[in-house]
Amino acid sequence: MENTNSKKKMKLWKKITLGIVGTILGVLVILTITVFAVWHNELNSISSIKLIAKADEENKSAPVYSIEYKGNYYFDKFIEQGGASSDSELINFIVKNITKGIIPINIGLSDIGCSSFTVQTAEGHHLFGRNYDFDTTTAMIVHTKPTDGRYESYSSVDTQFLGLKKGAYIDGILNKFITLAAPYAPLDGINSEGVSCGIYMSYQGSKTTENGDTRNVATNQMTEKPDITSTTLLRLILDKAANVEEAIELAKSYDMHDSANTSFHYMVADATGASAILEYVPENGNSQNDNDGTNRVLKVYRNNDDSAIGENEAKDKFQYITNFLVTPGYYESDTEKAGFDRYNAIRNKLNPDGTNPEGIIANEQVALDTLQMVGRRKWDKEQGESDSNGITVWSVLYDLTAKKVTWVNNEKFGKEVFTFQL
Fold first, then answer.
1. Burial level of 256, CB count in 10 A (0-12/13-18/19+)?
2. What's the pLDDT tens digit per position in 113-141?
3. Are 282 and 289 in contact (CB under 8 A)?
4. From CA 265, how far away is CA 52, in angstroms rounded?
5. What integer best gives the mean pLDDT of the chain?
6. Do 276 and 300 contact (CB within 8 A), yes or no?
7. Which domains are seen in the chain, by residue range?
8. Could you write out the DSSP letters of every residue in 31-64?
9. Which residue, 276, 223, 296, 292, is CA-closest to 254?
10. Taking Cα atoms as reference points, which of 135, 132, 149 lies closest to residue 189?
11. Which of 38, 46, 271, 283 could lock 194 by a disulfide, CB 3.0 to 4.6 Å apart?
């Protein structure tokens, strides 16, 4: 009898154990299905992250990553809600929609120095070149391919502006989830229509903070228009603009709120050879009284209509930009213009004697050589000067005709060069 009872008890425990295991497995299956249903685009995006260049201590360069972003990253929803009027509003939107309120994210920009220009090759390819000058920081090349009528694009992102540790490897699931905010923080890029754009420090105004620091004054327009921040304007252009004029109209449709309490200007170009510089300046102001970001208006200088900037600009059909405003009359003297030396060097390289107003070069190598010429390491060494932005983190050449990206890591021309094709 005792053996019979023992067997019954064992069978009962087996049933209970199997029931518990089955319940746990069922819950795990449900959780797995739920997580995949909610996060499948995000998880697929994270799984696509690749390390394409390791850190190089000798070169003071950080790692470089690429990501293939899956899904539509809620940008239409962002636009439909009226955009964002501050970094904090943008962060709240990203945390709520992309990380489902679980993972904190930071978005911001700092004092960056940059150069850009447009040119045309002898074969008729229109190019947009850009140097991103800063210090040691981890970069990410972001490929987005939304399926809701927006354009495919490649863009360059500095991951420290997502809140990741500057210059570090992107390890751990938490840090990888943070990179899901990358589509909202492009510093330059190209879309499948051959439209390219970039953002550049403009060092406008001078404001003393509560702790005694002196900061530039951010553009902070306050009209009835919907709101946009610095990098989300670039995302809007990459996603929605088929040419320069559409990009300009998009910019005109929003109130600009510069990120990180500092100021920026922008350049955009397309596959037809059109380009424009976009600046936010006081209607009748100058560098001496530009301390109220709410008083600024958008000024547009097209490559075929920019004679107001200067004599050389009036002749040249290509454009170039560094870190000072090209708006005429803004400065009292050229000594106030940040990056004026690099600005002139680019022009002199591409049109040295004034006989090449179209900016036609033999091939894309000439454009890469121009980027290398004004790279921070080479430039500072040859000019015998130093700058807080002592590194060119990346140089990128966008072929707007062929929809091709040539991306150079940390001035390693001919050594660490990556190409991508739309």
1. buried
2. 799 999 999 999 999 999 999 989 999 99
3. yes
4. 30
5. 89
6. yes
7. 50-421 (3.60.60.10)
8. HHHHHHHHHHHHHHHHHT-EEEE--BTTTTB--E
9. 223
10. 132
11. 271
